Amino acid sequence: MTSQAIPTEIDRQVSHEAPVLAMHHIRHAYGKHQAVEDVSLYVEQGEVVCLLGPSGCGKTTLLRIVAGLETVQEGGVDLGGRPIGRPGKAHVPPEKRNVGLAFQDSALFPHLSVLDNVAFGLESLPGKQRRARAMELLEQLGMEGYAKSYPHTLSGGQQQRVALARALAPAPSLMLLDEPFSSLDARLRDRIRDDTLHVLKRVGAGALLVTHDPEEAMFMADRIALMRDGHIVQMGTPLELYCAPRDPFVVTFFGEVNEMAGEVQGGRVKTPIGEVPVDDIADGTQVRVLIRPEALKIATLDEPPEALSGDGRHGDGDDSHGQHSHVVMAKLLGRSSLLHICAHGADGWEAHLHARVPGVFLPEEGQPVLINLDPSQVFVFPADGAAAGA
Ligand SMILES: Nc1ncnc2c1ncn2[C@@H]1O[C@H](COP(=O)(O)OP(=O)(O)OP(=O)(O)O)[C@@H](O)[C@H]1O
């Protein structure tokens, strides 16, 4: 299995409407430090796009450029087909962009009630309509009971919801969210994230959300732009990034992997748990084999043979090992169990591997096991960093 098995990017559907956001070849530097290098992306109406990547890769800089908090140095920004940021051209200020901002520490106005906070950006509406619109948003976020409260009496999660209601109240065509859930504890974060996703979909706003958390990106996004060092490494649906990663960085960013080195011979590469077919890398190439923990299908030897690979051997290869692989340790992680396995391959090749199995599966230390590989979660890349198939 290689990274090229299914298409890695969907071409933008031809649409009669301009995307709510289009960024063209954006480059941005702080002094001599190049923070963003030639980034292009678009967000369609009603679409949630996540900028995902490690700290310092340029996510917030991109968001600040769209918000108008940074001027465009190179490239261009269009909102709804209208150019609003070009180098050397008049800069459209943030408040004239019809963009909603929800940042990690979006502070509420302490001297205003919750209702007045949400109504704040609706000054173009008559008083009665302002209040009705603000109330509508508070209802959507389950905060209508707190309309008369003041921010200091609310919990962090409640404040976050009010901040979101305030950003959404003027019906922006685009919402910009920068790590909006990161200050919340895990359980609250899950709930507010879920609420936010449903409200965004209900109001039909496009959204560009910054996060460094791959699970959050997969939960929220229609498409993800995975960034590294100011570049987009891969852009696509969560399924595309997870199941057809373009390079090892994309695989490893989404979680722990078992990694081993090998050489392609006869269109296959040997591992201690069998051979892996490789379609598009030349024989003789040194490769990195990345195996997700969930790709290892574990069967204890007293299980029925249909749980194993067709002929009861490891992987799909020819390994008739003298010794079976065995369990070193098994830990329950909650929704899944993590097994540390000592895999015994041909020619005395041993490897310490991690396997993740859904639910409670805690075989004893030393328990002999057979390992079968799910090839859809095994990725092979040339060791020299060249793209597979290149
Ligand atoms: N105002 C600034 N002045 C100088 N350098 C900056 C400034 N803002 C950001 N940088 C640098 O630009 C790079 C990109 O920063 P940015 O905040 O866009 O990254 P990020 O991906 O959002 O990081 P994080 O997830 O930590 O917020 C980093 O190396 C950062 O140190």
UniProtKB/TrEMBL annotation:
Comp. bias intervals (Basic and acidic residues): 311-322
Region called Disordered, residue ranges: 302-324
Keywords for this protein: ATP-binding, Cell membrane, Ion transport, Iron, Iron transport, Membrane, Nucleotide-binding, Transport
Biological process per Gene Ontology, one example term: quaternary ammonium group transport
Annotated GO CC locations: ATP-binding cassette (ABC) transporter complex
SUPFAM superfamilies: MOP-like, P-loop containing nucleoside triphosphate hydrolases
Cross-referenced Gene3D superfamilies: 2.40.50.100, Nucleic acid-binding proteins, P-loop containing nucleotide triphosphate hydrolases
Domain ABC transporter: 21-254
UniProt-recorded Gene Ontology molecular function terms: ABC-type ferric iron transporter activity; ATP binding; ATP hydrolysis activity
Stored InterPro entries: AAA+_ATPase (IPR003593), ABC_SmlMolc_Importer (IPR050093), ABC_transporter-like_ATP-bd (IPR003439), ABC_transporter-like_CS (IPR017871), ABC_transpr_FbpC (IPR015853), Mo/tungstate-bd_C_term_dom (IPR008995), NA-bd_OB-fold (IPR012340), P-loop_NTPase (IPR027417)
This protein's name: Iron(III) transport system ATP-binding protein
Native source species: Onishia taeanensis
Lineage, broadest ranks: Bacteria, Pseudomonadati, Pseudomonadota, Gammaproteobacteria, Oceanospirillales
